[in-house]
Design goal:
- The protein is mainly β.
- Among the domains are: 35-114, Carboxypeptidase-like, regulatory domain (Immunoglobulin-like); 835-867 and 892-1023, no CATH class.
- The protein contains 8 helices and 59 strands.
- The strands form 14 sheets. It has a 22-stranded antiparallel beta barrel.
- Strand 41 and strand 42 (757-780) form a beta hairpin.
Length: 1036
């Protein structure tokens, strides 16, 4: 069916302001003032050339515009377009036809069967468009229909399960929190493992601001890719490895995600598109801890479960039968000691996101423009969490002459998020305070807590009251961002052309943390404001020569790039408030501030050679050399090549019903530099150190390494592409093996050295695996079609070498939680992402003392967070104007440390702690000398003792879920009606698990811990939500 642009009308707030802005945009577009011809209405019937039967669902589109329609059940259509416009007729499995309007009002079309669109064009590195059949490496393309059908607020979540080898996880830190994307496994030990993002040929920043990387009060303020508006996207091409992305240099060693945005088209006239998407987010039991509701607040005293009036977060008290007991809160003398089965779920609110867009397009003889405005307004499931984002996008393309063209774009994003949620175990994380509530705690009691009039401090045991954290304290994230470019294309002759492009990505991000009087850790009040400014400028020049010599297609590209990256971080902190409620550094008795700047530049030259022989044999070669400012002079220059070839076997061997059989092979190398200022030991202002109020300089905890070398990645890829039965059956297969050597990473050193860490060159990580996309159209009748696609990927990561004398590199350390757990990289096969922890048994025996379990300290391998395989299965059913989509995806294998359950088990909150409450349990094992022994323990000692080990809480992360459902209808409209297209879609996301391990039924195994390499554990995360909603699209 015809792709409908999903544009969302902003109708909620500031309508007067928006109306003025809209009229200004209309005037701006009209000022382009390009004459266009008289519109005419054309109608007709589309049939199949072989059988003469009408074909419903044929896309009838004015070429280069979004003006279009589809044929009805009888193959009829009607479209209005200007004279001289080109009308295209396309349908899956049929050859496209085009007609230029020159006075006719009726066009009847007979479509011929098409084996496969072998001339399909994809956007590759540097924005170079290539025929997909000629590529010697695998690419995946996702069009705007796929992206918008998911109705997500960011482009990444809409790609889940649809691209083989793309592993996506969300940190679920509330509204605006980041996504983590990895292509073909983790290859860097302590560096970045995410791909490069390129929008309209310009690399954009996808970094994440994470002020703390540990497990205490960690913050996630979202990644840069979240700012890209899905409604402005035309298509996404995924370049999965160095073979495809080598021309982008070091930043693309993990692959690249190439995003092409929408633009206006010549001859289009004025067009208006409006869309509104409204989604509701609901917390369901499937993502919440499984708690017991029999025993309440208290502890075992002399082996007797006893209620205590002391504020506690333990639920080891007596059975709750509604008895009246002394109140712990201080608001009343007694409380009713009874179960509160919903005191976790009822804390959460129904989240809501409304995304509304209006887009205006205008095109004439020599150029075109497109303007869009999108507003996203949302409230999260955690009280006080709100998001408001404005996205303005304007792009103009104009032919200055028949050989000179200009393309300019500006995208401005303004966003504010309030009530951002902390992660991990810490007093500021409301989820920590919520999940650890005693099972008799009434939420209404917690809502009374206000420091100024509370009888007691606003604490519950070892953590904060969740209502205090969300409504009294606050975290505010404000962002202004500008992404844009100016590109000039020129043709020297029919074979020689080129372009010059200058692009920039500027971000000003302010994060404010407000801690009111009475906060658990900052009782006298605290205010922190960090400002992050980052600007990246890219200047490109490319000269391209293309010519055919007899049966040989010859192409060569020569180009260069200058990338300059500047960033600055300003830190302000005030302690001991003077007057509560005024958030300014001057309102605090103690003040600290610091300022740091960073700059990096990489200059590059590159060349490509493209050869094609008789349209069946292709050879590509590329060469790039970088000069990086972050490496020493003798190592600053590094060169890397790439070569690939593809052979279309079906062009040289006749095969019945086989339309494409392509074999491809490639090898590529990519270099990588370092972050700035690692060559020499640096000094900086430490805001926590001062002398008589004057901040002091402090030596960096990591000494410089003057002889750093560039990292090197070598990648081999083999693939097969197959099409048969007029595109009704297809398969794409990739096998790859890549080795990343001479890695740049940081490791701990002895405190005796006077430092904390040191930089190292070393290590060799090998990733190998396969990717498979398989699908087709099993059923196609006159009015019904079923299309299905299955994606499957498997990756194995082997850590062949670390630095000399180093066998383990710590990626994350959970401290003393669940006995002390670390996520590490160990030498050996499947050595990346190993979960190390203390076992609960040694040689199959519990280690026991006189009073319970003996503490153990020696860690063993308990699991690995890397999945064995990932998959997705997408089915689309179309009947006349109705379409239905369902996506199932999942991961096979891998493990996750359910630290949340371990911690709550120690507190007697989870349902597994119901066992042994009354009579205790006799535990058999061995004593410290290895002699058999039996110890009688009460439930608190038993479960609390097991929570001190890591092994019981490592669970299988295998899961299969119904990810998406979508039901849409495209209305049939009268050709003379002022609305040209109207469609409605109903969407649901994250519906339920089809399979999940029994021990993981209280978490989402796919949740990530920020965007870094420290993954594989769940610790008081904001729950995943199930989303329901609808989208309305209108085109005039």
């Amino acid at each position: 069916m015809l792709t409908n642009s999903k544009i969302k009308l902003f109708m909620k707030r500031r309508f007067d302001w928006f109306q003025r802005g809209l009229m200004g945009a209309v005037m701006l577009l009209l000022s382009v003032s390009i004459a266009f011809a008289q519109d005419v209405t054309i109608s007709g019937t589309v049939t199949g050339a072989e059988d003469g039967m009408p074909i419903p669902g044929v896309s009838v589109v004015q070429q280069g515009t979004t003006n279009g329609t589809i044929t009805d059940i009888d193959g009829n259509y009607s479209i209005t377009a200007p004279s001289g416009a080109v009308i295209s007729f396309t349908f899956v499995g049929m050859k496209a036809q085009e007609f230029t309007l020159s006075g006719q009002t009726t066009i009847n079309v007979a479509l011929q069967p098409d084996a496969v669109d072998l001339d399909a064009v994809v956007v590759t590195a540097l924005g170079i468009k290539r025929e997909e059949k000629s590529l010697g490496y695998g690419v995946s393309k996702v069009d705007s229909e796929e992206i918008q059908a998911a109705a997500g607020s960011d482009v990444l979540s809409s790609m889940q399960g649809k691209v083989a080898g793309l592993d996506l996880g969300s940190s679920q830190g509330g509204l605006g929190s980041s996504n983590r994307v990895v292509l073909r496994g983790n290859s860097s030990i302590s560096g970045n493992n995410q791909p490069l993002y390129v929008v309209d040929g310009v690399p954009v920043n996808n970094s994440t601001i994470e002020e703390t990387t540990g497990v205490w009060d960690r913050k996630d303020f979202g990644s840069g890719s979240m700012d890209i508006n899905p409604d402005d996207i035309e298509s996404v091409t995924v370049l999965k490895g160095p073979n495809a992305a080598a021309l982008y240099g070091s930043r693309a060693q993990n692959g690249a995600i190439i995003i092409t945005t929408k633009s206006g088209s010549k001859g289009q006239g004025l067009g208006v598109e409006i869309s509104s998407s409204n989604m509701f987010d609901v917390v369901t039991e499937q993502y919440l801890p499984k708690v017991q509701n029999k025993y309440g607040q208290g502890s075992y005293i002399n082996n007797v479960p006893t209620y205590t009036t002391t504020v506690t977060d333990d639920s080891w008290g007596p059975e709750m039968t509604g008895q009246s007991l002394p109140s712990w809160s201080g608001f009343e003398d007694n409380l009713t000691y009874s179960p509160q089965p919903n005191n976790i779920k009822d804390f959460f609110e129904t989240g809501f996101k409304s995304t509304n867009t209006i887009a205006l397009t205008k095109g004439g003889e020599n150029g075109s423009s497109r303007f869009s405005y999108t507003n996203l307004n949302g409230s999260g499931i955690v009280p006080g969490n709100e998001q408001n984002r404005h996205n303005f996008n304007i792009r103009t393309q104009y032919d200055l002459s028949d050989w000179l063209r200009v393309d300019a774009k500006a995208n401005y994003i303004n966003q504010e998020i309030e009530g951002g949620t902390w992660l991990g175990e810490g007093s500021s994380n409301a989820i920590y305070g919520l999940f650890a509530l005693p099972r008799n705690t009434n939420l209404n009691e917690l809502k009374k807590y206000n420091y100024n009039n509370s009888p007691n401090d606003p604490y519950i045991g070892t953590q904060m009251n969740p209502y205090w954290t969300t409504l009294h304290d606050n975290m505010i994230n404000k962002k202004d961002r500008l992404i844009g470019f100016v590109k000039v294309d020129f043709d020297i002759n029919e074979n020689l052309s080129g372009f010059v492009r200058a692009g920039t990505d500027y971000t000003d991000n302010t994060v404010e943390e407000r801690y009111n009087l009475g906060h658990k850790q900052n009782k006298t009040g605290q205010w922190i404001m960090n400002q992050y400014k980052r600007r990246e400028t890219n200047i490109d020049a490319l000269l391209s020569y293309q010519k055919r010599f007899g049966e040989l297609d010859f192409g060569v590209n020569l180009g260069g790039n200058m990338m300059n990256n500047k960033s600055a971080v300003t830190y302000n902190r005030g302690d001991d408030v003077i007057s509560n409620g005024f958030w300014n550094i001057q309102n605090y008795l103690n003040k600290n501030a610091s300022y740091n700047i960073y700059e990096k530049q990489v200059n590059s030259v590159y060349a490509t050679l493209n050869l094609g022989y008789q349209n069946f044999l292709y050879l590509d070669a590329s060469f790039r050399n970088d000069w990086s400012s972050t490496l020493p002079e003798e190592n600053r220059s590094y060169f890397y090549p790439a070569v690939s070839t593809s052979l279309l076997i079906n062009e040289i061997v006749e095969m019945n019903n086989v339309n494409l059989l392509k074999v491809r092979l490639g090898y590529a190398e990519v270099g990588n530099d370092s972050d700035p200022y690692r060559l020499a030991t640096t000094f900086g202002v430490n805001p926590l150190l001062d002398h008589n109020g004057i901040p002091l300089m402090d030596v960096d905890g990591t000494p410089g390494v003057p002889d750093l070398k560039p990292e090197r990645t070598g990648s081999f890829e083999f693939g097969v592409d197959f099409r048969a039965y007029n595109s009704r059956l297809f398969a794409d297969f990739n096998y790859y093996s890549q080795s990343t050597k001479n890695q740049l990473f940081t490791t701990k050193v002895s405190s005796a050295t006077g430092y904390v860490n040191k930089y190292l060159n070393g290590g060799d990580v090998v990733n190998s695996g396969f990717e498979l996309s398989l699908g087709g159209v099993p059923v196609r009748t006159g009015s019904f079609e079923w299309e299905t696609t299955l994606t499957l990927a498997k990756n194995t990561t082997e850590v062949k070498e670390l630095a000399e004398g180093l066998d383990t590199q710590v990626l994350a350390d959970l401290g003393n939680l669940v006995g002390g757990v670390q996520i590490v990289a160990n030498k050996g096969k499947n050595g990346y992402g190993v979960i190390m922890g203390v076992p609960d048994k040694v040689d199959g025996e519990y280690q026991l003392g006189n009073n319970g379990f003996l503490p153990l300290s020696e860690q063993v391998e308990l699991g690995n967070f890397t999945p064995d395989a990932t998959f997705g299965w997408l089915n689309t059913f179309s009947y006349k104007r109705l379409n239905f989509r369902a996506l199932i995806d999942g991961k096979i294998g891998g493990d996750v440390m359910n630290a949340t359950k371990g911690e709550l088990t120690a507190k007697g909150i989870t349902e597994n702690t119901l066992a042994h409450r009354e009579s205790g349990i006799e535990v058999s094992g061995v004593d410290a000398d290895g002699n058999p022994t039996t110890v009688l323990m009460n439930a608190q000692d038993y479960w609390g003792g097991l929570a001190g080990y890591g092994a019981p809480w490592v669970v299988d992360a295998t899961n299969v879920r119904l990810r998406e459902l979508s039901l849409g209808y495209n209305f049939k409209l009268d050709p003379d009606f002022f609305i040209k297209n109207l469609s409605v879609n109903f969407n649901a996301y994250n519906l339920f698990f089809i399979y999940r391990d029994e021990d993981a039924k209280d978490i989402d195994p796919n949740q990530t811990w920020g965007t870094g390499n420290a993954q594989g554990y769940n610790l008081y995360n904001v729950p995943t939500t199930t989303s329901y909603g609808f989208t309305v699209n209108v085109k005039f």
